Every structure is written in structure tokens, then in C-alpha cells.
Amino acid sequence: MNPQKHSIDELLYQLEQELRRLTLWSLVKPNPEKLMSTAPFCVDTLRFEQWLQYIFLPQMYQLIKNQQPLPTQIALCPMAEEAFIGLSDKAADLINIIGDIDELLSGQRQQQKFLRNE
Asked: Where is the YqcC-like domain (predicted)?
């Protein structure tokens, strides 16, 4: 596994763990029709955390498993910042993990909130 795929695998795991920690991980899978939406992030049928859990994470794990190219045009952070605004400071780690994913894959970090002091 190349270093980028190893790093993204770690970040995806962190994303899953943080969703679970914040009790945003769903135990009930949405109806299949909801997963087939063509709207960005399935915004018309799913909450963003559901999209992460049922669309984004499985697709990313599948790409890694099949050694396929990972996306290079990605910007999840703006959506995450909007979707998790109600969590306020509790969302800081989650937003930063998503920002890390964006930066690793696209080389850009469009994060505006909860930036780590590095």
C-alpha cells in the first residue's frame, strides 16, 4: 500500500471513530432509495453523517481495497462545517479530520472553523 493510501486509510478510520464518539453513527441503514439520490451528498435524502457512513466511507474503502485511484477533487469540509454547526465545539475534531482528508486527497484545505493551531 502506498503511503497516501495508508494515510487515508487511517483518516477514514478516525472519521468513523469520531462519528461513533459523537453518536452520529447510525445503527439503522437508510432505505436503498435514499442512497440512490443524485444530489450532492444525497442532501435531499440523507443527513451528512449518513452520507459519510453509507456512501463516502464504503466507496473510499472499496477504492483502497481495489487499489484504484483516489479522488483528487474533493472538498467535504465546507459541507461538514454547515452540517455540524449545531454541535458547536464538539465538532472540532470531526471537522479537522474531514479537513485532513480534503487536504491529503486534493492538496487543499477549505476549512474555516475549528482550525488546529499548528
From this structure: 8-104
